[in-house]
Amino acid sequence: MRETIYLLRLPFRRIYVLPQKYINEYAWKPDDHISSNTDLYERLLGRWTYVGSLTPDDPNGPYNWVVEYVRSELTKQISFYLPAVQEDVASYFHAHTASDNDKTTLPVHDFCIGLCFALYQRIFVGKELARDPEWKAACVELGLSSVGVAGSLMRVPTWLRPAAATFMSGPRHVKANVRRMEAKIRPILTERLENKHRGDIEPPRDFIQWWIQKSIAVGRDPDNLSALVVALIQLNFAGIRSTGLGVMQSFVDIAVHPEYTDDLRAELERVRSTNGREELTVPSLAKLEKMDSFIKESARHVAQNVLSVYRKALRPLRLSDGTVLPAQSYVCVPSIDPDADQETATRPFDGFRWYRQRIEQPDQGARFLSVSSNAQALEFGAGPHACPGRFLAVAVIKAAVAHALTHYELRLPSAQKPKVPQYNHVLVYTPDTKQKVEFVRRI
Ligand code: HEM
């Protein structure tokens, strides 16, 4: 079964699901042959949701800049952002857990998404706007409207979508929220442009500033508000929910498997005492090997994606077994665990599985890290378009887990067991938003 190519029929989209062994035969091909951008734009209805590249061939289009920013500047600056991330994690916990009560029961999905929203906004648009409730409302409402629009239009034939969209309220809500975001960014962009030649002002290190500098460097108008807001929408779309679900799953697994807690805490204490301070640095995060394994195992056993490495073939794709998929085909591979039991398609949770594998195969150690991306680890995709944000995402998840383990015991409410993971009609993970976790204060 694992050697077979399947044709998956989704509403108005047919996708070839290839065996995982074919990843290297398509994921590394150049963009003018196998396109990630075009797939994303069509799959997520970018024309109405602003997700994916609106201009895949333009190297200076907002989406390509987002990818460049995440791959270069954002990843290089993780050390710079890490203290702010830890500060935000601490203050978010402080604000949401009662100080005069030793136990707080939280709806863990909303808590984790809210946490990631807060700390990513500080990195993308600066601390002030990150704390502005109107900005948050515009971003959240835009996200909800986009999901609604994509969900509805997906059920309409491709040729009918432009007409159908004119009769729907969703696209108008999306646009209205884009305008709200633009109104909030306008004064900041204007001020930054006015200050750009002033030597006495240290420029902030956020995405807005990177955008201005990049525009100037390539001779584009930095005062392009609508393109900047589209880029911010795409950054939010890529980073917040995915990281939030990673944090959520780690918290749920700590609560479900308390037998790992002592080992995880002992490792944390050892790393902190070697480091000589409570605050974690990038090198100390790398030493949290058991925690890394636990996070990776959490992501494996409740996968955010059933399918991964979605691409569109712009030209025919010839596979090594002689199969030729025609131009305009969509392809992907299953991202489920290749080593899962054939019958049950699962493997039991083993939090230190990857830690042991690193020790047993030191020459292959990097393959077992939570940030690794390869045919056996598809949580972050694979090839040149594998997730460039994964280094920051794992740093954020570790910072959140470290804070939670240090200050709280995590437990599930006695009447609540985690549900079997659910995936919707287009095979996207739909987390249990009612799942609660109890945070019992330790220190
Ligand atoms: C646990 C958190 C995350 C998960 C599970 C995740 C997962 C993914 C996956 C599966 C892809 C598609 C890769 C492929 O098709 O080969 C992707 C792409 C991408 N992700 Fe992430 N991601 C996460 C966090 C982030 C963060 C924090 C950012 C940025 C702030 C980010 C930015 C991106 C971008 C820009 C792309 C598109 C890359 C390209 O087209 O070349 N991601 N991510």
From TrEMBL:
Principal localisation: membrane
* Top-level taxon in the UniProt lineage: Eukaryota
Location comes to: Membrane
PROSITE patterns, per database record: CYTOCHROME_P450
Q: Which SUPFAM superfamilies match?
A: Cytochrome P450 (SSF48264)
* Gene3D superfamilies registered for this protein in UniProt: Cytochrome P450
Q: Does the keyword Metal-binding apply?
A: yes
Q: Which CDD domains match?
A: CYP503A1-like
Task: Please give the GO cellular component terms listed in this UniProt entry.
Answer: membrane
Which Pfam families does the entry mention?
p450 (PF00067)
- What is a single molecular function from GO for this protein? heme binding
**Record InterPro entries:** Cyt_P450, Cyt_P450_CS, Cyt_P450_sf
Cofactor dependence is on: heme
The membrane topology noted for this protein in its Swiss-Prot or TrEMBL record is: Single-pass membrane protein
Keywords in alphabetical order: Heme, Iron, Metal-binding, Monooxygenase, Oxidoreductase
Q: Which family does it belong to?
A: Belongs to the cytochrome P450 family.
- PANTHER family for the chain: CYTOCHROME P450 (PTHR46206), CYTOCHROME P450 MONOOXYGENASE AN1598-RELATED (PTHR46206:SF6)
Q: What is this protein called?
A: Cytochrome P450
